[in-house]
Design a protein that fits this description.
Blueprint lengths: L3 E14 L7 E14 L3 E5 L6 H8 L7 E6 L2 E2 L5 H10 E4 L13 H11 L5 H14 L4 H5 L7 H13 L5 E5 L7 H18 L2 E6 L2 H4 L5 E6 L2 E7 H6 L4 H8 L50 E2 L5 E2 L12
Parallel strand pairs: 3-8, 3-9, 6-7, 7-8
Antiparallel strand pairs: 1-2, 1-4, 4-5, 9-10, 10-12, 11-12
Bound molecules: iron/sulfur cluster.
Length: 326
């Protein structure tokens, strides 16, 4: 049996921009991504705004269609799903968003929102659904009192807990969490990250955790994929990637996280400049306009993704992957 829950092959998504203003141009938000998400893992997907990570998340949930390439979910090509199979897939793949109001109807009491997916997917009897809602509230650290409240009566952290309860209510296999803690203060962030980690263990979830902040996934994700201008530029076990990044962009993301330990002070200059427009990406290596160690060839030759025996992957002419093979 495969240990891969989701596989993307050459996954690409274009958007037309400038429509109605004369010339229409193409923005390639996700560009030929090959990625495996393993059953029961937390895969961190990290990159700046404009890296394509949120578009990748929406593609994995089939909220938008790929322009080309494909997504295989538990052995089935998502493009082949008919209406009935798509409904079944919706139960198995659930989102968590940065803004819990995306999942919580402001007019409904929280318990009703958590129960809604059980009704929509016809899971359990009325009594079982009520018991399940109570169980879910407890699992995310809320009480019946919170279940009786409306979203505006809860704190930001409590709202996110309720949104998480609604996401896991139908017992999904895959959860795509897009910046789920970015709007919370640091203390609450830590609590929600701990909650996500414990729910992942308890329910055996597979989680794709999307964030712009590498430090958020440091203790959470089993593996991390770093995206830049629509492509995965580095992928590997989180500890190995953070300890010894092979792509200068990953290094820059690590260096841009403030750290109290002077032994971890930046070796390279922190990330400079803005991410270029994906409408007109740089030639050669897309990172060359910001890379502190770029060489001539970087301007003209696009570095392929290379892997070593440990599964570590990087797209950089100067990556020394062989030295890190298992
Ligand atoms: Fe920097 Fe060149 Fe590596 Fe790109 S290929 S990341 S420009 S060194």
């Amino acid at each position: 049996m495969s240990d891969v829950l989701v596989r993307t092959e050459g996954l690409t998504r274009d958007f037309a921009v400038g429509r109605g203003l004369g010339a229409t141009r193409t923005l390639r938000a996700v560009d030929g991504v090959d990625l495996d998400v393993r059953k029961g893992e937390i895969l961190g997907v990290v990159g700046e705004s404009g890296s394509g990570k949120s578009t990748l998340g929406r593609l994995l949930l089939r909220l938008i269609e790929p322009t080309s390439g494909r997504i295989v979910f538990d052995g089935t090509d998502l493009a082949a799903l008919d209406r009935r199979a798509l409904h079944a897939f919706r139960r198995r793949a659930q989102p968590i968003y940065q803004d819990p109001y995306s999942s919580l109807d402001p007019r409904w009491r929280v318990a009703r929102t958590i129960r809604e997916p059980l009704d929509a997917f016809g899971i359990g009897t009325t009594t079982e659904r009520e018991a399940r809602v109570a169980e879910l509230l407890e699992a995310v650290g809320l009480s019946g009192r919170h279940g009786d409240a409306r979203p505006h009566e809860l704190s930001g952290g409590q709202r996110q807990r309720a949104a998480i309860a609604a996401a896991i209510a139908p017992r999904p296999d895959l959860v795509v969490a897009d910046e789920p803690v970015s709007a919370l203060d640091v203390l609450v962030q830590a609590q929600i990250l701990n909650l996500i980690a414990s729910l992942q263990r308890e329910f055996g979830l597979t989680i794709v955790f999307i964030t712009h902040n590498l430090s958020v996934v440091e203790h959470l994700a089993d593996r991390v994929a770093v995206m830049y201008l629509g492509r995965v530029v580095e992928l590997g076990q989180t500890a190995a990637v953070l300890r010894d990044p092979q792509h200068p962009y990953t290094r820059a993301l690590i260096d841009s996280v403030p750290h109290p330990d002077p032994a971890r002070s930046p070796e390279l200059s922190p990330l400079r400049g803005e991410i270029p427009s994906p409408i007109d990406p740089p030639s050669g290596c897309r990172f060359h306009t910001r890379c502190p160690i770029a060489i001539d060839v970087c301007k003209s030759v696009d570095p392929p993704l290379r892997a070593d025996a440990s599964g570590r992957v990087a797209a950089c002419h100067l990556a020394q992957l062989d030295q890190h093979a298992a």
